[in-house]
Design goal:
Length: 1237
């Protein structure tokens, strides 16, 4: 093992910087009989609406801006001049690398669009081709500002094009230019008021000790309890974070300015008297930019929604936020603010209906920085990650301005929201009052995290955010009910929008102590002083804990008296050198106030009690200096791919906080060479691996979702070779999109090459292509009700004609596109029955005709509202199977599975029904329930389709299902049961906190560890997880697609030896399933198909359930396909002679043949030799046995060849009769002894 170290010094200035919020809306729900999948998103599909994070009462509709806002007994007309501008579909934000292309484009526009020559792909060529109309700088030039960071932002322009232009194509064209840093939409950000908090309040116990203090404000509502019927203090939040003891140390100073970028503020509110920022260098009303900052008459701030100086809050959100930060305190009126003397700057980045755009919000941030703000509060957010806003936040950070962001109120992952997920902000979640039981709070003496609050690794701290009393802007009512108004001038609201200003107010107190700080140090102090309310140290739900105002200021004073160092570890990357060696790169930084002592590090296997893999020294580091390290180590020496990097294990360094000195590292499997392919599409469908070009290796096929505008257009079905190269003729264009439906592949026309079938949504189509990407004549198919979502396509010979038919929902076609007799299902033609799930198909009763099973709902002809949900079964001719359907009382959306789970030699059916919780059912072929079933799964209304696999190699298959909690803060779980319904040892296992799930992700089973047992692999949005047969996490997992923020893995993985090295390869689609309008930049979205490889060599790489619904035909059967055996020699009814006979049999199966028996006249006479090769997805084996004819009596005999595959499925050849010629001569006939098995 070896190490290298590089030291560098960085310069830091003073003050702080941090975070933001956002809101996720958009979840799939399955509705009623039609089983439609609907997406709830704000406003237009193509313009995602973020939100100020304020939950609201149910059934409240926000009035349009042109109407009037109803506020209890008040109504306030809203002038249309103060409505937020509507997004111009022809607007594009572009940041140029230099001034040259800007001047060229300006010259072209001045020349009336034609007098300047240009190459087609130049900036002018792109503008001319797309009808550019005008260009304007995004940021006003501030004549006072000369910093390089600020001047670089001046190259950001808004370009306006003719309406109807394809914005996504524009983005692509500009992004590919060498003159452009980034190009993006002018994204829309807005307030989206959510669900109100309905509290059933228990009694409050004050659990935070308050010292004897003198700094207690005289504001009456700070001392009152129950002003709206609640049992806790009106201003419980300030008391919970121990503000009184903090005020003994500082009440703030007017020199500290907090910029509130929001809906404006009511600066005339009596409880904001003296707190509003005034631009003293600007003379009001003279129409002159007196201070040369680029804005005229900006005495009180600026309105970036309408580009004027009018900052009145007609919505209420901004005033509420400002009151939490710094309401005028100890004025014998109303409420107390956290920063008594803190100044707030009003920047109206959101309009009167809560709407705004990335352009105006980024402009607000720059104005705040350039005009003296120390802190920026951002209680808003969006699914759209704007590089424009990111640049503005980075500029604030470089100028030591602290940014604080609300985490968002969707109860999902904060990584999907912006700017809360920006690395340079302090991200704040919401906390509930003590001993409160409500829809969002659970009773606890310490309080609890609000259930609506987003969570994840980016959460830094939590702060009071439920039922927060603050100021009401005149005439406003955010919730539109009047119930939240208190004493006319005050207002109650909940959300992470209310939590963030608590942190901004606390930072203002911290900065008032005159401790020299930068944004990282401010964050360090707040984190270190937080009250640990979750798991020890930082956890995904609470970050470092609940802010504690008094402890924060005490710690700051201690640092000022005795400066300390603060070392932090930052992992850079881990690289695989080869299958036995890896390299770790990491950085040690000193973000403290004094020089650190020299120390050392150790890299352990798994934990500090594990093997020391590597160690090395760390030099003394000055403040804000860093050292880079590279460690090489052998993986053959360690028992696991999980490591712990421990800095200063002997505590040689005097630090503020030791919690940042350990870094847990999970080494993922290495990426497969050539993957991911270079594409900018979301791949949210399951994958399929099949040899479609007959080159002896498998190709990967996947469908896309929403990469173009309008939404759902421009999608494709891709096919790649094993090295990531596109297959000739692909991708193929489609209407609509492919979401969670998997392609099906099979040779449906007997031409020796496979065909590909795909179902799309919006609109519903069933597409078919030949292997070369050519559409098959007669396809695509358009169902009569093309708005219905069909849950998948399957291939099977349902009419016993020797050809595979194509099934999708209630329809079935031959390969030429003609309908199969008896299809579509008679009851489905007129809406009496709706097929909700994909099919499971097999001949379960061994009568030579397949049966088809699916989740469905049947409606009486007289009542198409209340149907009977369950699993239904049909024969291939469309008639019902006796004993079915079986009612479940809950809807079955996931595909059933077929396999013998109880060991009786007959096939069973397993399915999952969904309600408030899920039930896993198991039935015999006749529809009777198997003993021990059903079993329940908790916390979900959705699940993965069940899979059946013998994961522990005991010859008895298990049933595996995962629950999919949607929008909940509970962990997804994977369950494994034995055939008798008993949970298997080690199960269920937690799959990590679920992020808002937009589809049903599917599990697969394969031996990826090389131990002859199966691992369960499945995607859970943030990563691809794997567990062994005992439920333990598999080393090398989870696997991530690249960027942590704004990404997920979706659909279903496929496991295959893609490159023929006898090692399992794992592939999965990546992207953002909620990124309908490509709002996230391509460089942050690994939107492609990703592939990893294992290091274990497999003699048998064939597995039981390596793709969605088991196989490429999507039959959902646990290898119920028996080997097909035929005898080619001798021919039937022939006469043989001589001394020997070579019996030859041909065996075809989807899996590996385990054994062959040659039966002569019903008796096993031997196993012979077996030679196998691959044809398409099947194994073709030649079995031969040499029979000694001298030992065989003359006369008639019969031969049967029996083959057994690795899963115990037995196939038998037809009986072949032959005659041995009589032996003549002196001895007569010779009796032959036959060994009996």
């Amino acid at each position: 093992m070896e190490g290298t170290v590089e030291i560098k010094k960085t310069i830091s200035r003073t003050k702080t910087f941090v975070g933001v919020t956002a809101l996720m809306t958009g979840v799939f729900s399955f509705i009623g009989a039609l089983a439609l999948v609907l997406l709830a998103i704000p406003d237009e599909l193509e313009n995602y609406t973020p939100s100020v994070v304020t939950p609201n009462p149910p059934n409240v509709v926000q009035l349009p801006c042109t109407e009037k806002v109803i506020a209890g007994d008040y109504s306030v007309p809203i002038p249309t001049t103060h409505c937020p501008k509507q997004i111009d579909s022809g607007e594009l934000i572009v940041k140029f690398k230099s001034d040259r292309p800007i001047m060229e484009l300006q010259k072209y526009l001045r020349s009336r669009h034609g007098l300047v020559s240009a190459l087609p792909n130049s900036i002018i060529g792109i503008g001319r081709r797309n009808g550019i109309k005008k260009m304007m700088p995004v940021f006003s030039k501030d004549a006072r500002t000369k910093s390089a960071a600020r001047l670089a932002l001046d190259r950001t322009y808004k370009l306006t094009f003719q309406r109807g232009v394809n914005i996504q194509n524009l983005i692509s064209q500009f992004s590919q230019s060498a003159d452009v840093i980034f190009a993006e939409k002018n994204f829309e950000y807005s307030i989206a008021i959510e669900e109100n908090i309905r509290q059933n309040v228990a009694s409050l116990e004050k659990n935070v000790p308050i010292d004897d203090v003198t700094w207690v404000p005289d504001d009456p509502m700070y001392h009152s309890i129950g002003s709206w019927g609640q049992s806790y203090d009106d201003q419980w939040g300030l008391k919970r974070i121990d503000a009184e003891n903090a005020w003994q140390l500082s009440t703030g100073t007017q020199d500290v300015v907090v910029a509130v970028i929001d809906t404006g503020t009511d600066i005339t509110h009596p409880d904001l008297a003296g707190r509003a920022w005034v631009n003293s260098d600007e003379r009001p009303g003279n129409g002159i930019d007196d201070d040369d900052n680029g804005f005229i008459d900006d005495v009180r701030g600026w309105n970036f929604a309408t580009n004027d100086a009018e900052i009145i809050d007609r919505h209420g959100h901004g005033t509420h936020v400002a009151g939490i930060i710094g309401a005028t305190t100890s004025n014998d009126l109303g409420i107390a603010g956290l920063g008594w003397d803190t100044t707030f700057m009003t920047l109206k980045g959101l309009g009167d209906n809560g709407g705004g755009f990335s352009e105006g919000l980024a402009q607000s941030i720059l104005y705040a920085v350039d005009n003296g703000a120390d802190i920026i509060n951002m209680s808003w957010g969006s699914l759209a990650r704007s590089q424009l806003i990111s640049d503005a936040i980075a500029y604030a950070h470089s100028q030591n301005v602290v940014s604080v962001a609300a985490a968002g109120n969707s109860g999902g992952s904060v990584t999907m929201f912006y700017p809360a997920s920006d690395p340079s902000v302090i991200t704040v979640g919401a906390w509930c009052p003590s001993n409160v039981t409500s829809a969002y709070c659970h009773s606890n003496p310490e309080g609890s995290r609000a259930a609506f609050s987003n969570f994840g690794e980016k959460i830094d701290v939590v702060a009071p955010g439920v039922d927060i009393l603050s100021l009401r802007a005149a005439g406003t009512d955010m919730y539109k009910t009047g119930s939240q108004i208190v004493q006319n001038q005050f207002y109650r609201s909940s959300g992470t929008s209310m939590a963030a200003p608590h942190v901004s107010g606390l930072v203002s107190l911290l900065l008032s102590l005159n401790l020299r700080t930068n944004p990282e140090q401010v964050k360090l102090i707040i984190d270190a002083a937080a009250e640990d309310v979750g798991g020890e140290g930082k956890d995904p739900e609470h970050g470092w804990g609940l802010i504690h105002a008094a402890s924060t200021l005490r710690l700051a004073n201690q640092i000022q008296a005795t400066p300390k160092a603060e070392l932090i570890l930052q992992e850079e990357r881990i690289d695989w050198m080869d299958e036995n060696n890896a390299q770790l790169r990491f950085q040690v930084r000193n973000i403290g106030w004094s020089q650190s002592q020299a120390t050392f590090y150790k890299l352990y296997s798994d934990s500090t009690s594990g093997l020391v893999v590597a160690e090395g020294s760390v030099p003394s580091l000055p403040p804000m200096a860093s050292a880079n390290f590279t460690i090489s180590f052998a993986l053959t020496q360690v028992p696991t791919l999980r490591f712990l990097l421990d800095l200063d294990p002997d505590n040689n360094v005097t630090e503020i906080e030791k919690r940042n000195n350990q870094l847990f590292i999970a080494v993922s499997l290495p990426k497969l060479t050539g993957w991911p392919p270079d594409t900018n599409y979301n791949f949210t469908s399951p994958l399929v691996a099949a040899d479609i070009d007959n080159d002896g290796t498998k190709e990967i096929i996947a469908g896309t979702m929403s990469s173009q505008e309008p939404v759902f257009s421009g999608n494709r079905v891709f096919a790649w070779h094993r090295d990531g190269r596109s297959v000739t003729g692909w991708p193929a264009p489609i209407d609509g999109y492919v979401f969670d439906t998997e392609p099906a592949v099979g040779d449906t026309d007997h031409d020796g090459r496979q065909e590909i079938y795909v179902v799309t949504s919006s609109p519903t189509r069933i597409y078919a292509w030949f292997a070369d990407g050519t559409p098959i004549p007669g396809w695509p198919k358009i169902p009569r009700l093309d708005y219905l979502k069909i849950e998948g396509v399957a291939l099977a010979d349902i009419d016993s004609d020797g050809d595979q038919e194509i099934l999708a929902g209630p329809w079935a076609w031959h390969s030429d596109g003609s309908l199969v007799s008896g299809w579509p299902l008679p009851d489905a033609q007129y809406g009496e029955i709706s097929v909700l799930s994909p099919w499971a198909i097999d001949d379960i009763d061994d009568d030579g005709q397949v049966e088809l099973f699916a989740g469905a709902i049947e409606y009486p002809p007289s009542n198409l509202i209340n149907g009977v949900a369950g699993v239904y079964a049909w024969r291939g001719d469309g008639t019902r199977v006796p004993g079915w359907p079986v009612a479940t009382d809950r809807v079955v959306y996931a595909a059933p599975a077929i396999g013998d789970i109880d060991g009786d030699g007959l096939f069973d059916i397993v399915a999952v029904s969904h309600g408030e919780a899920g039930l896993v059912h198991a039935w015999h072929a006749d529809g009777s329930t198997i003993a021990g079933w059903p079993q329940s799964i908790t916390g979900t209304s959705m699940s993965s389709p069940p899979i059946i696999a013998d994961i522990d190699n005991d010859s008895s298959p298990e049933v595996i299902v995962s629950n999919v909690p949607s929008g909940q803060t509970i962990a997804a779980e994977v369950y494994t049961w034995r055939g008798n319904g008993m949970l298997a040892q080690g199960w269920p296992v937690a799959a990590g906190i679920s992020k808002t799930t937009l589809g049903v992700d599917k599990l697969v089973a394969a031996d990826i560890a090389g131990d002859d047992k199966l691992e369960i692999v499945g995607p859970f949005n943030e990563g691809l997880f794997a567990w062994d047969h005992l439920g333990a996490s598999v080393p090398g997992f989870p696997l991530y697609t690249g960027a942590v923020d704004f990404t997920s893995v979706t659909g279903s993985p496929v496991i295959v030896d893609l490159n023929g090295d006898r090692k399992q390869d794992i592939l999965i689609g990546g992207g953002s399933p909620i990124n309908w309008n490509n709002s996230l930049p391509p460089n942050l979205l690994p939107r492609s198909v990703h592939a990893w490889t294992s290091f274990k060599v497999h003699e048998n790489a064939d597995e039981p359930w390596v793709t969605s619904h088991h196989d490429n035909q999507r039959t959902g059967r646990f290898d119920s396909q028996r080997p097909v055996v035929s005898v080619s020699n001798p021919s039937a009814n022939t006469s043989v002679s001589g001394s020997t006979l070579t019996i030859t049999a041909i065996i075809i199966d989807t899996s590996v043949i385990r054994s062959v028996q040659f039966l002569m006249d019903g008796t096993n006479v031997g196993s012979g030799t077996l030679t196998c090769s691959k044809i398409l997805d099947n194994k073709r084996c030649l079995a031969q046995f040499t029979l000694n004819l001298n030992s065989l009596e003359s006369g008639n005999h019969s031969i049967v060849v029996r083959a057994t595959d690795v899963y115990g499925n037995i196939g038998r050849s037809p009986v072949v009769s032959f005659q041995k010629a009589s032996i003549t001569g002196g001895g007569g006939r010779i009796p032959i002894p036959i060994e009996v098995e």
